[in-house]
Write a structure and sequence with these properties.
By secondary structure, the protein is α/β, with parallel strands linked by helices. About 40% of the residues lie in helices and about 15% in strands. It has helices at about 5-10, 35-50, 55-75, 90-100, 115-130, 145-150, 175-185, 205; strands spanning about 80-85, 105-110, 130-135, 155-165, 190, 210-215, 230. Strand 2 (about 105-110), helix 5 and strand 3 form a beta-alpha-beta unit. It holds the Pfam family Aminotran_5.
């Protein structure tokens, strides 16, 4: 567990916190000193050694491997279950477009989802004729997510999409209950972790979900240019539809 002293040490590495009260971590987290140091070191290396050649590609591969290992520790999963993406939205799109949708298929989401999760569903609806159901979690997202979602499930339900922490109210949804529901009915569950990663503890195996997309630039306080990532349950490694 992080102690008060450790938190103060972390805060001291973030100049943005010393002269102001910083309340916009849900968009961009404050950068610790190690971020510009790492970026500068990488640029310096590429400036000196060039950006082409076997050594450069091997270095990039090593960085990607290390990134997956760090994310795996954060999510309590295996590095092989972590995929690096350009942003959280791309991770959500990969899953939504990776399923073999047929006209009349159904997807369940909630009334507290971000457009990054909804946009691919709207487009798939317009292209393929799927039906989108929105579970009503109440104005403050304080209703049971499992109960609201379970009431909308039919034999045509192909996917459940929802946030771990809602961007509208900051409510923490009971994802474990929804993950259990998905396993019981063999319906894959996709989680938008944009407001949860780095904010609350995450154990994707305990949650029992199939996909978990997350960013690095918000509560994990990474730079905007840093790769985002996604947890993919091992048996979903290959999708039906190419991107």
């Amino acid at each position: 567990m992080v102690t008060t002293i450790q938190l103060e040490e972390i805060r001291n590495t973030m100049p943005a916190l010393t002269a102001q009260i910083y309340l916009n971590t849900g968009t961009f987290g404050p950068l610790p000193a190690c971020v510009p140091e790492a970026i500068t070191a990488r640029i310096q290396k590429e400036w000196q050694d060039g950006r082409l050649g076997a050594a450069g590609f091997e270095s990039i591969a090593q960085i990607s491997t290390q990134a997956r290992q760090h994310v795996a520790r954060l999510l309590h999963c295996l590095p092989e279950e972590v995929t690096l993406t350009d942003n959280t939205g791309e991770g959500l799109n990969i899953v939504c477009y990776g399923l073999d949708w047929q006209a009349g298929d159904e997807v369940i989401t909630t009334n507290h989802e971000h457009i990054s999760a909804l946009a691919p569903l709207y487009q798939i609806r317009d292209r393929s004729g799927i039906v989108i159901h929105q579970a009503d979690l109440g104005m403050h997202a304080d209703h049971s997510a499992r109960t609201a979602i379970e009431a909308l499930i039919t034999p045509r339900t192909r996917l459940i999409v929802l946030s771990h922490v809602t961007w509208t109210t900051g409510a923490i949804l009971d994802i474990q209950a929804v993950g259990t529901l998905g396993r019981e009915l063999n319906i894959p569950v996709l989680i938008d972790g944009a407001q949860s990663a780095g904010n609350i503890p995450i154990d994707v195996h305990s949650l029992g979900v199939d996909f978990y997309a997350l960013p690095m630039q918000k509560w994990l306080c990474g730079p905007m240019e840093l790769e985002r990532c996604m947890y993919v349950k091992d048996h979903y490694a290959i999708f039906n539809q190419p991107m």
